[in-house]
Structure to design on (269 residues):
């Protein structure tokens, strides 16, 4: 099987741990501009690491007035660093050759991707709530450079609200935790709600893993996000990255790849 390109979102700052697996491309959450991760990196740390590794910076928050703050620090980053952004307003600041647009739950079809291509946004992260046939259609009908969350605990949503502390306050609960596991009332699935100083994120507690269809994900840049994945599962993933049966070795889920979900942008008429 052809060797794939994997981009790692680490769960700690020791990137040397990944060298024995020949992994040298990393996505680093930028402090104060990202939410929901285990670790965050300062500009100096990112620049230093970019001397040894291929580095992307991820900013998955909508920034509002923070965009003006980022404008002041953008030129402090080394020129070889790329940026994965959720707030499309940053495309007015970042060189489009260094920009990867990550509109979570939005980029679900080739027409949207081709529209962005015509706007010179040629690097995009597609949804990982797509069926495998939809992914193949995107591969066949776009010229863009496509990124895809291949293995991760999916972020379902984020909010500027402090969901955990507000819950504790409302029900008069004395608890110092910043995280709750909750059971979703309709699906009965377990979700993880985690609060940070800038808001809260909700993740699905099972690991999404697309390895069953690894051979069909040609020409995609595959993202592995180790956030909130336990050490045993992490090691199994690292040791079996190129194995199609990886999904059987961990507590994984690939429901979206085989089930048609009628809520994606453009699906409902």
């Amino acid at each position: 099987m052809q060797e794939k390109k994997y981009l790692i979102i680490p769960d700690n700052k020791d990137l040397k741990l990944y060298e024995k697996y020949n992994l040298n491309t990393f996505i680093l959450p930028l402090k104060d501009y990202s939410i929901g991760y285990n670790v965050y990196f300062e500009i100096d740390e990112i620049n230093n690491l970019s001397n040894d590794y291929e580095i992307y910076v991820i900013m998955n928050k909508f920034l509002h007035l923070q965009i003006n703050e980022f404008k002041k620090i953008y030129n402090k980053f080394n020129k070889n660093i790329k940026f994965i952004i959720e707030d499309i307003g940053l495309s007015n600041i970042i060189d489009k050759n260094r920009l990867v647009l990550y509109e979570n739950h939005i980029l679900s079809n080739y027409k949207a991707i081709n529209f962005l291509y015509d706007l010179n946004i040629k690097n995009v992260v597609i949804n990982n709530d797509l069926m495998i046939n939809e992914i193949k259609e995107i591969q066949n009908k776009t010229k863009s450079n496509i990124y895809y969350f291949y293995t991760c605990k999916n972020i379902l949503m984020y909010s500027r609200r402090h969901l955990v502390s507000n819950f504790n306050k409302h029900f008069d609960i004395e608890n110092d935790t910043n995280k709750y596991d909750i059971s979703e009332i309709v699906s009965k699935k377990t979700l993880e709600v985690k609060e940070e100083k800038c808001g809260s994120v909700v993740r699905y507690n099972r690991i999404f893993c697309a390895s069953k269809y690894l051979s069909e994900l040609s020409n995609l840049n595959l993202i592995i996000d180790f956030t909130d994945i336990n050490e045993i599962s992490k090691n199994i993933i690292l040791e079996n990255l190129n194995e199609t049966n990886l999904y059987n070795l961990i507590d994984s889920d690939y429901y979206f790849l085989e089930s048609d979900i009628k809520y994606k942008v453009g699906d409902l008429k």
Notes: The longest strand covers residues 145-152.
